Amino acid sequence: MACCLDPIPGYSQGTGNILSGTVVDSAGQKPIAGVSVFLNSTSIGTITHADGSFVLGPIPRGKYQLVISAIGYATFVTDISGNQAAPALAVVLHPKATELAAFTVEPYLKDGWQRYGKIFLDNFIGRGDNAGSCKIMNKDAVRFHFSHKNNQLTVTATEPLIIENDALGYTVEYRLLEFSCSFRTNIVMYFGYPFFREMTTRREGRRHRWEEHRQTAYSGSMMHFMRSLYSNRLTEAGFTADHQARVPNLEKQRIKSIYHPDIDSGNTFPIDTLHYFWEVLKQPDVFSRTVRLTADSLITVYPDQTRSLFFTGKMRIIYSDPKSGGGYHGSEVYLITPAMIMVEENGNYYPPQEILTNGYWGESEKVSNLLPMDYGNH
Fold it and tell me: Which range marks the domain in which residue 36 is found?
């Protein structure tokens, strides 16, 4: 079957700079070979040579987290930008503690997969169409911890999780930093450092199927929304955003200014006008009204062209594919703190744990639908 693939809108196709550096051990300053060096949530990565050196790139436009990770060492993370040249890095890795201090009180459960495996998979891998084609290859690395005091499940991993996603055609190395499920609040949060490797195939049909599934996963995703928000193209991309705003009852305020029942003789206004006044005065002082939000009202652009997102309360996002004119889906977004969220051209946003989603994104933004940040930059 022939497949026509459209370009991904809203993301610059230009490439950035080459990054180089060396990685050494903190104890003897000896070079470390085989260290993973990659841009968080991308397919751009490499490993260090025998002399500890690495060359990474080209780095697409936008800001990224550079992740340098080796077993037995604490992960090194720093921000870099593909918009400007960076000097060579000299990275020192420090040995990692053998035990996770946060979980010394709550040892992992030997029967964790039997008791909580489905909850973890549903909320980490997902439950959508692509989830059945995802498989964690090293499930033995997963550790389940349960706190009876907090009624909370926490999941850790002793090594990067290797996830084969045959629906999208990626093998994902996911360095899980946090997964928590509160049974008290029904809030699930997780984040980490994923690195993508494209799967290979000689079958043309399989390759086209991967591309079709990738475009389906991208359309209406948070990455799609953030890229469209950054470029001020929400409407063109098929998104609408609104929230419930509290607005004053101006008519009630007006009537209060002209009608004073305690001193009015009753002859000042006709009886039908008085009935109207009485009905309006029964209304609340403040109404809740749906207000349409634009990119300009959500995004602040700074002199250096960086952009931040901020809103209050609950924001509702509706997506309808502008090409198909078919169905739509809705999501709800909250800022937990609330604090400003930095948004990048590539669709990246941080800190990721500040955003809480519900509705469609609450179900779809899982590993089974995860795309690398350099998607659309090929």
Answer: 19-93
**Backbone φ and ψ of 120, nearest 5°:** -65, -50
Q: What is the chain's length?
A: 378
Residue 71 inside a domain? The answer is yes
Please report, for the domain that includes residue 41, its CATH number: 2.60.40.1120
pLDDT value of residue 377: 64
310, 338 Cβ separation under 8 angstroms:
yes
Which of 352, 333, 331 is closest to 341 using CA atoms? 352
3-class SS at 164? strand
Question: pTM of the predicted model, to two decimals?
Answer: 0.82
Residue 146 · residue 109 · CB < 8 Å: yes
**Calpha distance 150→182 (Å, rounded):** 8
For the residues of 230-241, what is the DSSP string, one character each?
HTT-HHHHTEEE
Residue 194 located in a structural domain: no
pLDDT at 265: 63
Q: Does pLDDT of 62 surpass 70?
A: yes
Q: Is residue 70 part of a domain?
A: yes
- How many other CB atoms are found less than 10 A from the CB of residue 66? 22
34 lies in a domain? Answer: yes
Closest to 372 measured CA to CA, from 337, 346, 353: 346
Instruction: Render pLDDT for 286-334 as a digit per residue (tens, 0 to 9).
Output: 888 888 999 999 999 999 889 999 988 899 999 998 876 667 899 999 9
Long-range contacts of 336-339 (CB under 8 A, 24+ apart): 338/310, 338/311, 338/312, 339/310
Which residue(s) pair with 154 in the sheet? 145, 180
User: Among residues 87, 74, 93, which one has the least CA distance to residue 30?
Assistant: 93
